[in-house]
Amino acid sequence: MANEHQTKAWNGYEGEHWAARRTRYDAMLADLNAKLFPAAAITAGERVLDVGCGAGETTRIAASSSRHATGIDLSGPMLEQARAASADLANVTFIQGDAQVYPFPRHEFDIAISRGGIMYFEDPVAAFSNIRRALRPAGRVAFIAGGAQKPDSDSMAAFTTLSRFIPRPAREPGDNSPSPAALSDPDRIREIFTAAGFHAITVQTHETVSIVGADAVDATDFILTWGPVRYALEQAEVDDTGEIHAAMTEALRPFETDDGVRWRSDVVLITATAE
């Protein structure tokens, strides 16, 4: 597999963490479905490829309005959950593999979708070229990627607080290495997708709302278990997170609502057509 670091993470702690909390993550990302699926406009006769399908919620949604949906993901733990939750669906298939290099049958799919599973390719042009070859001529894509992280975004309330205890290494301008914001620049997106053989490329930024926890304490408990946060704590040799927990909880209090801790952030919706 080409994306070795991601393969290791999603078959280790990161994948196990998401798999054990798949319903919580699906609820947190639910607002993205309302943006992704209208743009995808899947119809009954179509075959769908779901890239970075995780525990399979988006694959099952796609299957409900299509001929067949295939989900591909690196993570064995998450695909175990996906297969169990989809056992009664005859038109769903899951593949463990790397979409950057997986030997998909040529012209197999009418549309490829993704809810946040496309930002971590080591070589995005190669990855999207491979996906394009799997699409029929004039097949299309509808992808959601992470948006630019604004200094005043809601999530920065937590991460700015965390950085008081664990300095975050600054990303150099133009650093496009795999990260949630690796595909946040519209010009770069158009360049990549054009090079990969797509046209009619559209890039739209949308605000989305995520429910991160029932209250500030619950949200902080959850955030401190996230893979990148846990890794940062380990690297900084932080064993006692009591002070960090208290500070982050206080920082998240303003985002508490009757529905839980609500975060607003930007995502990027990408659509394109295969040449």
TrEMBL record:
Q: Which Pfam families match?
A: Methyltransf_11 (PF08241)
Write down the InterPro entries for this protein, in alphabetical order: Diverse_substrate_MTase (IPR051052), Methyltransf_11 (IPR013216), SAM-dependent_MTases_sf (IPR029063)
Q: Which UniProt keywords apply?
A: Methyltransferase, Transferase
- Please state every residue range assigned to the domain named Methyltransferase type: 49-143
Protein family (similarity comment): Belongs to the methyltransferase superfamily.
By its UniProt entry, which PANTHER family does this protein fall under?
A: METHYLTRANSF_11 DOMAIN-CONTAINING PROTEIN, METHYLTRANSFERASE TYPE 11 DOMAIN-CONTAINING PROTEIN
User: What protein name is recorded for this chain?
Assistant: Cyclopropane-fatty-acyl-phospholipid synthase
| Gene source species | Kibdelosporangium persicum
